[in-house]
Amino acid sequence: MSTKRLLASAALGACLLVALVAGPTTAATAATSSPSVTGVTSFPQPAAARSGAQWLASQLTPQGYIPGNVPGQANLSFTANTVLALASTGVDPAGATAAVGYLESHVNQYVTVSGADGASQLALLILDAHAMGVEPTAFGGNNLVARLLATLQPSGLFGVQDPTYDGSYRQGLALAALAAAGVTDHTSVGSAETWLLAQQCPSGGWSSDVAANPCNGDPNLGLGADTNSTALAVEGLVAQDALTTPSTSAALAYLTATQDGDGGWGYSASLQTVPGPTDPNSTSVVIQALVALGKTPAAWTRPAGNPVSALVGFQLTTGAGKGGFFTPFGPTADPTATFQAVPALAGVPVPFEIGRGYWLVASDGGVFSYGDAAFHGSAGAITLNK
């Protein structure tokens, strides 16, 4: 398999909920992906989700941020994503609150990308605010919703940044965030929905931007339709009630065709019939898309497993990184893989309660899934959302 494809998946995966990414790059070697965990057939997996969230919580500093590579400096993308992981499980509400406070005091530092507001970053902060019961129009003195809407271009794309590798991902995230904020009128988001629907390829998957990244691009270079763009496009359009029946059927056909033999997904379409290309980032976002579509991920079985068993197979069960998720590139706990896997295993699609079923949202921001999902999260007063 192509290491370019795996690394592209990890890079774009970090966009859930993160920053813009550059194109695929080459890694020297890639470790073999973890095999599926046999016997994992139920969904969601609240214990695994909480364990991953606990590892993330342990990485937060007392100031409320996830450290970056430079001592004393925050990785704001990791911090913002960690808030969603903690909120989706109810783990460490105090830490999640501190992280939101830190983000509120560093909004401009985080959302500025190449000198302009980044749509992905604004969308993630809106989702953080939504999950934690904070008003997104007054987030650290910033109206995040107005700023996100202000990035809408005449083409219908959110953000002025190059969309070659993240256009559809960014667009789906923005539409989901705006839905969470109550912005669903055609006047505000109609052109954005039209732009995103136009990125769907004949295969049923989404390209990041069909103008700069045609549907027939080489998947070995991370080009053409990909699972990550497809997953977030689906979630954003579902959140806005704008995904048509033909588009839904085509998307499901694409996800069926690209599912690996171990039950998971890699970034691009795979021609392999044995486990190997799967990565936790891509598998996580596809699981969330399936949940948004009302599908049961554990029922998507392949010869060697299902999406849930494939994802759980990347979780560390012993050692210093216990609870964290690793990637095919190394055996240590990886923040990006973990903050994506946690909401997926908790059964929570973007933006949480929108997409399927009922969600019981705790007053402290924790989410209790209800119905076919197990209760989890911290105690507190709850309100019922549908």
Protein architecture, described:
This protein has 14 helices and 5 strands. By secondary structure, the protein is mainly alpha-helical. It has a 3-stranded antiparallel sheet. The protein has a two-stranded antiparallel sheet with strand order 1-2. Strand 3 and strand 4 (367-370) form a beta hairpin. Helix 12 (280-292) packs parallel to helix 14 (335-345). The N and C termini lie far apart (42 Å). The model is unreliable at 1-33 and 354-386 (pLDDT under 50).
Summarize it:
The chain is mainly α and 386 residues long.
How big a fraction of the residues is strand? Answer: under 5%
The general outline is globular
**Pattern of helices and strands:** HHHHHEEHHHHHHHHHEEE
How would you write the strand order of the largest sheet? 4-3-5
The overall strand count is 5
Task: List unreliable stretches of 5+ residues.
Answer: 1-33, 354-386
Mean pLDDT metric: 84
Number of helices: 14
| Separation, N- and C-terminal Cα atoms | 42 Å
Largest sheet: 3 strands, antiparallel
C-alpha Rg (nearest Å):
19 Å
Secondary structural class: mainly alpha
Q: In percent, how helical is the residue content?
A: 40-55%
